[in-house]
Amino acid sequence: MSETIELQGRAWQACELEQIRQWVEQNPTWSRYRLSRELCVGWNWVRPNGQLADMAARSFLNKLHERALIQLPPCRRASPNRMKHRRLECVTVDSHPVEGELSQLGPLHLHEVSRDPVRRAVFETLLSTEHYLSYRSPIGENLKYLLCAEQNRPVAAWLFGAAAWRCRVRDQWIGWDDRQRAAGLNRLTNNTRFLIPRWVRVGGLASWGWSRVRRRLVEDWQSKYGHGIELVETFVDGSRFGGCCYAASNWVKVGLTQGRSRGDRQHRIHVPQKAVYVYPLSGQARQRLCR
């Protein structure tokens, strides 16, 4: 084995990995679930809100197992991740046309729906039925916003989740190195879904809605996860969209992706290039991320 190996955003010494291997061997009756939990406790591997980062620990152990650096016990049961196995139950959403000027919509209300089961069901139904990428429950830190008009009629939705581990043009724009990226990636979020339903045709709604969302992102993230965020990223498929709403909302286009999918270690999977847009949430975002 080489002296170091990079996993989970840091370099591990061979002696550290050997200690983990011996620890796993010394506890042959433990399940993979218990190993990840015990690892969190032993290393104080917790999120800023105090919760055990057991999914990150499990991913770390699985990667070591895949590389034959440790031998994990066989899986005993399905993952306890309730989001992975939760069945999406669609609800009825009013799809009568909403057209006209923004000023004609009346009062608009923005809701963060992660902890609101009624509005969350509407949010999930909209994305699963109306968004071209559909919807599945996000893993890790995330926020879900639903913009509603009168009578709680949804007119737009935004989903924010984990940022891409690497993105050449984004990383060049920020100006950070690998160590800084590993330390600061949790202060980025990816706008993984944005939707205005097909029956809503209101000029200026996208940029108006984003202006309300961005005002809340940092505070809502801090409240839910115990830390703030500095930068939002998104990837726009140019074969489908022109990115006009992002340009109108002062997002910065920093370049194109390399046309590879996440996890394409062998560089064999070719996917359409996407335009990369970023939105700093403060004037010092880049400087803070490079500390």
SSE order and pairing:
Elements: E1 4-7, E2 10-13, H1 14-25, H2 32-43, H3 54-66, H4 82-85, E3 98-100, E4 109-112, H5 117-130, E5 143-148, E6 154-162, H6 168-174, H7 178-184, E7 188-195, E8 200-202, H8 205-225, E9 231-237, H9 244-248, E10 252-256, E11 274-280, H10 285-289
Parallel strand pairs: 3-8, 7-9
Antiparallel strand pairs: 1-2, 4-5, 5-6, 6-7, 9-11, 10-11
Helix pairs in contact: 2-3
How does this model look, in words?
The chain is an alpha+beta fold and 291 residues long. The protein folds into two domains: 77 residues, no CATH class; 204 residues, 3-Layer(aba) Sandwich (Aminopeptidase). The chain has ten helices and eleven strands. The strands form three sheets. It has a seven-stranded mixed β-sheet with strand order 4-5-6-7-9-11-10, sandwiched between helices. Helix 2 packs across helix 3. The longest helix is centred in the last third of the chain and has 21 residues.
